[in-house]
Design brief:
The complex is a heterodimer of chains A (about 500) and B (about 475). By secondary structure, chain A is an alpha/beta fold. Chain A contains 21 helices and 16 strands. In chain A, the strands form 4 sheets. In chain A, strands 12-11-10-13-14 form a 5-stranded parallel β-sheet, sandwiched between helices. Chain B is α/β, with parallel strands linked by helices and about 475 residues long. Helix content of chain B is about 45%, strand content about 15%. Classes of the chains: A alpha/beta (about 500), B alpha/beta (about 475). Chains A and B meet through β1, α2, β3, α4 and α5 of A and α2, β3, α3, α4 and α5 of B.
């Protein structure tokens, strides 16, 4: 038993449901007690989904406990098959069915006899896998099922597409900014003259899956989801894959160069160097941003990064390599894939933390006192408590992390978004800090009736010059505080001495 | 020949039980806040934890006094000793938080692997010196608010008997009374004359309500000369009310049937079966019934109710003649439907997870009577509804408002059907005369919003009408 307040990755069935509900016309039936269909609420709320979430429950209650599910699961599958005519029904086990040990595979086989659509049992064990692993496995399982089926019926298309083409693998519902990332990747591919053969699972139908082998290569942008499918496709059809996450300027370029290599190996004769150069220097603002004085001010500032493998690793590299920020700690909650993370970030950070324990991460942040955190919603709350700003870069996430506006993290537009995120986090922290030095946000007593602090007090030239050195956004505040101090003590002129005295008094 | 009239009895149906609701473990979220010295330990899996973490949203960041005892594979396979494991965790909780009570919430998993929580608790309680209350609030047996029912039923067993309470402690336990009479002495002379307390047997109310509502309802009864001698649950576990044979008890919420049963059978209390104090009509009927039992002539209730209704007129104008469909998920449905019928709405269907016709008898009678008086058809009451079938019926009936869970709210809105999220009724203050306005604030919100957006022509926002 483990005492737990918070968890980073959800239970296995959530992963399966994310895959099932990403496809079009695929229905998931959970074998679960009442109340376990909370997934529907999350999808409906977080994604503001207009359609009913295609997930229902075959309810496990006392009767099932006493006598077994018997006909119930089979009836529920065939009923759903009749009602909604899905292409595929995925029977999804939960923690409850894991211990009941009913022969769900047998139910699936029996239901398949009556059902028009296909029926599959998701091969995930609650006690062995988490949400991310389960999603990866389920996607692989569905792809394998439909390719084997196509092969059996001799429906596999022969050969590759005429033009270079790609399958984008791994964009799902409830994925962090997945929808925007997918759009950005499609734009990127269009720029490169690469046809998108398929994008799975989000928005795809299962009948499209048999077209997967026609692509020249597969692109797997996220470490956690899609790799098993890409490896399977390589093994079965020799389709190479690119698993470099195009997040950040350097990594996007690396990803494009890998694509170039993979395509040229198949005789495409493409050269993306000009494109990369043009994008980097003129289209994306991130490279210019890292040269600008804004970013100069961030040099050597301390940051902590924590999240899933993909986003935490990419973010660490961006901060350290592209912005000159010192990453004092980089961490991931993907314990099962910790070696990869270590290898990715070890040269870019002081310390690595692999943990699923929110308390441990909170303690590390408190100890290190970074100027900013890049983490999940949980780190954002740690930051709130410690007064450290936080940019959210990975799930678990809240509704505000499903923006309506276009906010990719991948590709060249993604680099712009990340630059904003980083810069805004740090300036907020800086502003906060300055405000504290100069006496807080709220003036307890009004000095004048108007908000502007025009007054009859004279500032000496030196004091005025000193005042002008104060950053613009807090200058008015400093001016007001100083003048208030001077008035309270009956000074008619504000000299440097008065100014310092005011600062000390306010600070005291 | 007799005139053809609507059937005078309610029509009960039962469907497949395939509906969306919250897991009953969600009750920890409001109970840990209510019982300030408690700690709730949910013994379950990642699934339970994930639900709590997401359903309770920001609350979880406020250092909640609840946690998961997350079962791992070794626990399931009995490779680890349950007693030792629970002892380890409870000692840690004792060290970190030092609560006055630890409530163990049994889940589906502890049911299936038959972990004997009731057996382990007394042993561990003796060993660590903190009371351990066991409530089996699992999704195999219960829905949403019934979780509170299982916790309160278990707590009812812990209420002290008069002999067990020392004199000085008694004053402490009567904190509510003390609070209410605080500063009263001087007021009483100046303002209205104090209502003389009637001599009646000790009377305890059960159901967890926010403190302002507790004060409010207690005062309403005090105006009739009725003394509330305790409330289950109290603000602190150490203040649980004294219960003894012959005490009178009354429920404030419709989902507390197990608690009522426990109080009657195990504690030999007398249950006052009344409608629930939801809406001004319900509140009046609730007080009247309690008065009747104690042989009191209720004072000024009719005027009080009329006054409340008059104040609601602006909201009533918005909903009169409109129809409302309850999909059913929190057991407040009968009371809310009864109130809304009195407001002038029609109710084609009341979905409800579980219908205790004995515990809710007075409420059901009031619903029937209200429908007759308002001359509207009696609703069909669908126990264990089937959400899929309900959505077909909603498409057919096109009700003006659907009260439903969040899983269906957005999809229905996208199809031009106004919805109100049912969970809000559980967390909002809806009891007593004073809070009637809050209920209508919730009910009318989608209607007011839609009125504000009217004329934009954006009411249907799905491209092709899906089959479901």
């Amino acid at each position: 038993m483990k005492l737990a307040y918070w968890m980073y990755a959800g239970p296995a069935h959530i992963g399966t449901l994310r895959i099932a509900s990403s496809f079009k016309n695929v229905h998931a039936i959970m074998h679960a007690p009442l109340g376990d269909d909370y997934f529907n609420v999350m999808r409906s709320m977080l994604e503001r989904e207009r359609d009913f979430t295609p997930v229902t429950t075959s309810v496990v209650d006392r009767n099932v406990l006493a006598r077994g599910s018997q006909e119930k699961v089979v009836d529920n599958i065939t009923r759903k098959d009749r009602e909604e005519r899905p292409d595929l029904i995925v029977l999804t086990p939960t923690c409850t069915s894991s211990i009941l040990q009913e022969d769900l595979q047998n139910f699936v086989e029996r239901a398949q006899l009556d059902a028009q659509g296909d029926v599959l049992l998701a091969d995930v064990n609650h006690y062995r896998f988490n949400e991310l692993q389960a999603a990866d496995r389920t996607l692989h399982q569905i792809v394998r099922y439909y390719l084997q089926k196509a092969r059996k019926h001799d429906q596999l298309p022969a050969g590759k597409t005429e033009q270079p083409s790609v399958n984008l693998i791994g964009s799902t519902t409830l994925g962090f900014h997945n929808q925007h990332d997918c759009t950005e990747l499609k734009r990127l591919m269009a720029d490169l003259g690469i046809q998108v053969n398929a994008a799975i699972p989000a928005g795809a139908t299962v009948s499209e899956l048999r077209q997967l082998p026609r692509a020249w290569f597969n692109l797997v942008p996220y470490r956690e989801l899609g790799l098993a499918t890409a490896q399977y496709l390589e093994q079965e059809f020799g389709t190479p894959y690119v698993d470099v996450t195009p997040m950040g300027v350097v990594e996007t370029a690396r990803c494009l160069r890998r694509i170039q290599q993979v395509l040229n190996a198949q005789g495409a004769a493409v050269n993306y160097e000009d494109y990369i150069d043009h994008q980097t220097r003129h289209v994306s603002q991130a490279a210019w941003f890292s040269r600008s004085i804004d970013c100069q001010n961030l040099t050597g500032k301390k940051a902590v990064v924590f999240g899933d493998n993909t986003h935490a690793a990419a973010m660490t590299k961006i901060l350290a390599r592209e912005m000159g920020i010192r990453v004092v700690l980089a961490g991931t909650y993907c314990k099962y894939d910790a070696d990869w993370f270590r290898e990715q970030v070890s040269e870019y950070c002081d310390e690595i933390l692999i943990s699923e324990d929110n308390g441990e991460i909170g303690d590390a942040i408190a100890r290190l006192e970074p100027a900013a955190i890049f983490g999940t919603q949980m780190e954002r709350h740690v930051g709130k408590r410690l007064n450290i700003p936080c940019g959210v870069i990975a799930a678990p996430i809240h509704i505000q992390n499903f923006p309506i506006g276009y906010r990719p993290f991948l590709g060249y537009e993604g680099t712009n978004q990340i630059a904003d995120l980083v810069y805004n986090s740090f300036t907020l922290g800086m502003e906060d800090h300055l405000l504290e030095i100069f006496g807080g946000h709220d003036t307890k007593e009004a000095i004048t009736t108007s908000i502007s602090a025009d007054s009859d007090l004279n500032w000496t030239r030196e004091a005025q010059a000193e005042l002008n050195k104060v950053p613009g956004f807090v200058r008015g505040k400093v001016k007001r505080n100083t003048e208030k101090f001077a008035r309270d003590r009956g000074f008619s002129e504000i000299s440097l001495e008065v100014m310092y005295a005011a600062k000390e008094a306010v600070g005291a | 020949m007799t005139a053809t009239t609507e059937p005078a009895t309610l029509n009960f149906e039962c469907e497949t039980g395939n509906y969306h609701t919250f897991c009953p473990i969600s009750c920890v979220a409001w109970l840990y806040q209510k019982i300030e010295d408690s700690f709730f330990l949910v013994i379950g899996t990642k699934t339970c934890g994930y639900f709590l973490q997401n359903a309770m949203g920001v609350m979880i960041f406020a250092e909640p006094r609840y946690a998961m005892a997350e079962l791992e594979e070794a626990d399931i396979a009995a490779k680890l000793n349950d007693y030792d494991e629970l002892k380890r965790l409870c000692l840690q909780i004792k060290r970190d938080r030092n609560p006055s009570v630890i409530v163990w919430i049994g889940t589906c998993t502890t049911e299936i692997i038959k972990m004997d929580l009731e057996g382990l608790a007394p042993q561990l309680e003796a060993e660590i010196g903190i009371p351990i209350v066991v409530a089996r609030a699992n999704g195999l047996d219960y829905a949403f608010t019934q979780g509170e029912d299982t916790v309160l039923a278990a707590m009812a067993q812990r209420c002290p008997r008069p002999a067990e309470v020392k004199e000085e402690e008694k004053a402490e336990r009567n904190a509510i009374q003390k609070l209410l009479s605080f500063g009263r002495q001087s007021d009483a002379n100046a303002a209205e004359p104090e209502v003389k307390a009637v001599d009646h047997p000790p009377f305890v109310l059960f159901g967890s309500l926010p403190d302002p509502v507790v004060t409010n309802l207690t005062l309403e009864l005090k105006k009739q000369g009725i003394q509330v001698s305790g409330w289950l649950p109290a603000k602190r576990y150490t203040e649980l009310p004294v219960l003894d044979e012959g005490y009178y008890v009354a429920g404030v919420n419709p989902f507390l049937s197990r608690t009522a049963t426990t109080l009657m059978r195990r504690r030999k209390c007398k249950l006052i079966g009344a409608p629930f104090p939801i809406g001004p009509d319900g509140t009046r009927a609730w007080i009247e019934k309690i008065c009747t039992v104690f042989g009191i002539e209720p004072q000024g209730l009719a005027e009080r109710e009329a006054q409340i209704w008059a104040n609601l007129e602006d909201y009533l104008q918005l909903i009169r003649g409109k129809s409302v469909f309850f999909m059913g998920d929190n057991l407040l449905e009968i009371s809310l439907a009864r109130f809304l019928v009195r407001c002038g709405m029609t109710v084609p269907e009341i979905g409800i997870p579980y219908m205790d016709k004995r515990y809710q008898k007075a409420e059901l009678d009031l619903l029937t009577r209200t429908c007759q008086e308002m001359a509207v058809p009696l609703p069909r009451i669908v126990e264990k509804p089937d959400n899929y079938n309900q959505i077909q019926r909603i498409q057919e009936l096109q009700p003006d408002l659907v009260i439903t869970g969040m899983a269906h709210a957005n999809p229905l809105e996208a199809r031009g059907i106004s919805t109100k999220w049912s969970v809000e009724f559980t967390f909002a203050q809806i009891h007593g005369f004073t809070n009637a306005r809050d209920i209508l604030e919730l009910v009318t919100r989608p209607l007011r919003r839609n009125a504000a957006l009217e004329g934009l022509g954006w009411d249907k926002l799905v491209q092709t009408e899906a089959t479901i």
